[in-house]
Each structure stands twice: as C-alpha cells, then as structure tokens.
Amino acid sequence: MSTEASGKLTIATDSPAYEPWFKGDDPKNGEGFESAVAYAVAKQLGYDKADVVWQSVPFNKAFAPGEKTFDFDINQVSISDERKKAVDFSSGYYDVRQAVIALKDSKAAKATSIADLRKLHLGAQVGTTSLNYIDDVVKPAQEAAAYSKNDQAKSALKNGQIDAIVVDLPTAFYITSAEVTDAEIVGQFENQGGAPEQFGLVLDKGSALTSCVTDAVDALREDGTLAKIEQKWLSDAVDAPVLK
Question: Where does the Solute-binding protein family 3/N-terminal domain start and stop, copy by copy (predicted)?
C-alpha cells in the first residue's frame, strides 16, 4: 500500500483538536473518539501506533479541492454528495445527529420545536452540516451567523450576540458540560431523509487507499469495535429531546 511517507500512515485533523473527539488537544494519545478510531483503522491497515504521523489541517481545507498531504483526515466531516465532488470518503464511522445549544434561562432554551427556533438568531461553523441544518431545516427569519471556528460561535453565544448555536450532539454535550457551563442542550434534530448523516474519513479524490480504508472501517463496524469506542467516549449522546 503506497502512502504519503513510506512505511508510515499520515492522518490529519484540525488544531485545536476538541473533546470528546480528542483528549487534551493531543491526537497522538489514542484518547477521545476520533483518535481511538484513527488508531483502530491504522491497526486494521497493518500500522502500529508508532507508524502513525499526525498532521494539522484546518476543517474546511480537508475537503477543499486540491492534492492532499495526508493519507486520510478524521475531523467530524459529514459525507455529502457536494463534498464528494472534491474528495473521496471512506464508509461512515459515526452516525451523526445535530443539536441546538442555548444559554439556560434564555428564551431560546425554552424552544421545543423547529417552529420555535425560526424566530431565533442562530449560528454555526462555516462549511458544516450544522449550518446547513439551520438554513435547510429550520429556515430562520434572520440569516444564520457563520463562524470560521466553533470557538467563535461559542463566544458569540456567551456574549449574547446570537441566541443559540448548532453543533453535532457529542460536541454539544462537551460544550455544555465543560466549556459554556451556563448553556444547555435545547434538543437534537431528527435525521433528514432516509440515510443517517455520517462522518467519514476524507481522502484525496481518486486515492488508491479509499477502498482499503473503507474496508477497514466496515470491518471495525462489523466486529463491534466502533460501537465499543463510541460507548467509551460518546455514551452521553442519546439523552437530548428531539425537536420536530
């Protein structure tokens, strides 16, 4: 198998690398859901932990057109037909739900339906399916605020510049438990359409590794490894009410 660096597997993710996907902003430690998945895929492909090289690549750049400097990227990137025009994806390693966070005691925190969300000023990270959910599912009266990093969205929420933010559910649990502790999860969205939204590993368009990496992810799903890793690092993510 020919990789970026001979005998090594080069894996990319954004910096900082957030919990619960990574622990302590250190992808190398094998802790956190995506770090654990990355090393499980590497092992399935025949690479020891010592043979994995991490690289920092901004979220939006990971799936932008152009040649890649990594073998695959793992960074909560949802598989979409639009993105597939520029890059390859492995099969999905995580089924995603999007969630809404608002400050406790705010009017946004009382929302129980998508209709309630329409009246609010919502924000999300640019280029994400979270932002798509605001535009396509909620269709708010006021245009959504788009931020280049989740950190900026969190600050805007804290400072009252927006009423609520949309992120994926595990990130929502982490933000409300550790980062913006006066915020709460208002609820989660149902999956849109038939197939669930899924995170996939991102590869160069036409990469010779795509089928091997997909086989590795499929094997980890079938033998229960992905479920075990999810249980360990993301077990909270089922408790949020569903917004309809």
Answer: 8-237
Q: Which of 94, 102, 99, 117 minimizes the C-alpha distance to 188?
A: 99
Amino acid in position 125 = Q
The tens-digit pLDDT sequence of the chain (244 residues) is 789 999 999 999 999 998 999 999 999 999 999 999 999 999 999 999 999 999 999 999 999 999 999 999 999 999 999 999 999 999 999 998 999 999 999 999 999 999 999 999 999 999 899 999 999 999 999 999 999 988 999 999 999 999 999 999 989 988 998 899 999 999 999 877 667 889 999 999 999 999 999 999 999 999 999 999 999 998 765 568 888 8
* DSSP letter string, 96-123: E-EEEEEETTSTGGG--SHHHHHTS-EE
Q: What is the dihedral of CA 76, 77, 78, 83, to 10 degrees?
A: 180
